[in-house]
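Chain A, query sequence.
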Amino acid sequence: MGLIFQNISKKYGAVVAIKHAEMEIENGEVRAILGGNGSGKSTLAKALGGLISKNSGEIIFDGQSIDFKSPKEAKKNHVIMTSQELSLFGNLTVEENICICDVPLKGIFTDKKRIKEKSLEILKVMKLENIATKKVEDLAPNQQYMVELAKALVQEPKLLIIDEITSALYREDVEIVDDIIKDLKKKGCMVLFISHRMSELYAMCDSVTIMKNGETLGTYPMQEKTESELLSLMVGSKVETGRQHKNRQAKSEKDILIKAPHIKIPSYGTEESLEIRKGEIIGVAGLQGHGQTDLVNSLYGNLGEIKIIIDGKEVSIHNSRQAVSNGFAFISGDRERDGTFQERNLAENLAAVKELVKHEKIGDSRSVLDSFNVKYDNPGQLITALSGGNQQKVVVGRWLSTKPRLLLANDPTKGIDVKARTDLHKEFVKLAEEGNAVIMISSDDDELVNVASMAECSRVIVMYEGHISAILEGDAITRENISAASMPIEEKQMQA
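Chain A, predicted structure.
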């Protein structure tokens, strides 16, 4: 029976979000939806999941025409949607959140024993039993997204929509998700998989539908198209994804920009040291929670005073304002919490750092927005009117317009489409080529390998239990080497 979209359209005033979308999916099929930010992927998913109403067309599910008026109605029919905009309650525990859509009752009271049993069943599959009683607000972002998925799985979906929740996940999380999807396929569950990580699409999906400007351009078997071919279809022009290995300069040939001899890693009670060279891009890798975020937060003054040497001069940084005054910039992948001012418009979001901290004029907002290919109507519209990826482009534009000496980026491309991600990498390389430096954390090892290959001077440092377990340079920067350095304990056990 499967799922059929016929001539689906959706408008928001004069803006056409979806235009005559067509698609068919079979039972047990995992279908990737690939398109740029604002192409209509999430809008199509929300129309299916009952979050928004379509203007025209028909959706047929298991041979029946459906038009869910709410997510609750969709869930009753086992159509479950997970989203990058988390639907979790931070003040409740993990197990309470997992069962929130169908709370087990004992008479008129909540059956706490059954809640524990139901949640632990799925948490064991996801190797997350240890967080069952923790409050969601106390979890790391990747754990929150795994809980969002667990909450969907406990509802026994016949059709599961995964909208960008893997963008915050680490390699070990993605491997668990891969196993879960394989199991869902065996049960005949259909999966709509929206992600900008191409390696995930090739690993998990059977087929791919390309969307652009609200239209479905075509559907192809996943393994029959190369990454370059898919991206070319997505953007409407030829795109080459082959990595451009520049002739990297040995790091010793570059002047030192910053010496940081005492970087505190509070999560492990450790310290690390780092020398950052002009023109250098340093990727930071490792399994989730091994000190990567502490490293950049310490350098930015978020974890108390840090004494560093900038261009031979000792400087004490006590907070983020002082860091910005010394030419630092910080981009977070968590745009809702750390990136955007949601009640403000685009122009105000762009001006926030330059005008409020550096007391300089931002200039023409439109030129900044256009230079980062932001899809918008006018600089006066609220930033929340933009798609998630376009919001992140505004955040990036805000910081790069300050021309920082050191850019600290914590998973900055989360939720950004593949083409925009490449554009952002080019901006980082350009910043480095001007004699500045970039330190970038990514939960995607392939991304770090790619960025390093684009820069003349680059390293990837791998963190394990609060220490730098490896420093990779040149041809040693590979996904395999990053993976090995992320889990050095395995090597020790093998030798023993």
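The longest strand covers residues 15-25. Confidence is low (pLDDT under 50) at residues 241-253, 489-496.
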